[in-house]
Amino acid sequence: MKSAFEVFLKDITTEPKRYIFDLDDSFFSEKEKSEIQGGNVKIQVVAQKKAEAFEFGFEIEGVVQIVCDRCLDIMDLSIVASDSVIVKQGEQTDEDFIFIPECEETFDLEWVLYETVALQIPIQHFHEDGECNKEMIKKLNACSTEKLAEEENKTTDPRWEKLKDILNNN
Ligand SMILES: [Zn+2]
After folding, report:
1. SS3 of 105, please?
2. Could you tell me the distance, in angstroms and rounded to a whole number, from the CA of residue 135 to the centre of ligand 1?
3. Are 47 and 19 in contact (CB under 8 A)?
4. What residue ranges do the domains of the chain occupy?
5. How far is the CA of 70 from the centre of ligand 1 (A)?
6. Across residues 49-65, what is the average pLDDT?
7. How far, in Å, is the centroid of ligand 1 from the Cα of 65?
8. Per residue in 128-139, pLDDT tens?
9. Which pLDDT tens digit goes with each residue over 83-123?
10. Which residues does 13 contact at the CB level (< 8 Å), separation at least 6?
């Protein structure tokens, strides 16, 4: 089946060629192990042939849904970014480029588009102050206080208790 994100390499010349892709909830939710739960992102791709390489420039704009690090609820993250990749045909000789077989007539942008969006997500991300799920924060705090109390109990070694008794008696 032809992917909706496939472009014909012979269509790409030294004249910039534009493609518009809309990535929706189903695009993101179909990806396995995706950090992105859903979203609505428009990507304008400008493809151009440069020497023996194909350059794909991306203008990304939209919103993705990801899990908040603080309250674990789903949050919206706005993304506005530009990025690019260079695709070459032939043997893989350089990690900076994407290599595809010489005989390939098309290039499937699906994974590249996904990765480009995923790369824009900061390592730490949470709701704006005051917008986290308060109930969840309460629960999470309760859990961590309980754990802390448990840890404290564990560190009380009976031998120390004995030593304390001896010291107190002196
Ligand atoms: Zn939150």
Report:
1. coil
2. 11
3. yes
4. 6-118, 134-169
5. 5
6. 96
7. 12
8. 999 999 998 888
9. 999 999 998 888 889 999 999 999 999 999 999 999 999 99
10. 48, 49
Phi and psi at residue 167, to the nearest 5°:
-65, -40
- Distance (angstroms) between ligand 1 centre and the Cα of 83 equals 28
Q: How far is CA 136 from the centre of its chain?
A: 23
**Cα 136 to ligand 1 centroid, rounded to whole Å:** 9
- What local confidence, expressed as pLDDT, does residue 100 receive? 93
50, burial (CB in 10 Å: exposed 0-12, middle 13-18, buried 19+): exposed
- Whether the Cβ atoms of residue 3 and residue 40 lie closer than 8 Å to each other: no
Q: If you measure from the C-alpha of residue 67 to the centroid of ligand 1, how many angstroms do you get, rounded to a whole number?
A: 8
Q: How far is the CA of 73 from the centre of ligand 1 (A)?
A: 6
Residue 125 above 80 pLDDT? yes
Question: Taking 60 as the threshold, does the pLDDT of residue 42 lie above it?
Answer: yes
96, with CB counted inside 10 A (0-12, 13-18, 19+), is exposed
d(CA 58, CA 48): 12
DSSP class per residue in 28-40: HHTSTT-S--EEE
From ligand 1's centre to the CA of 74, what distance in Å? 7
Do you know the residue count of the chain?
Answer: 170
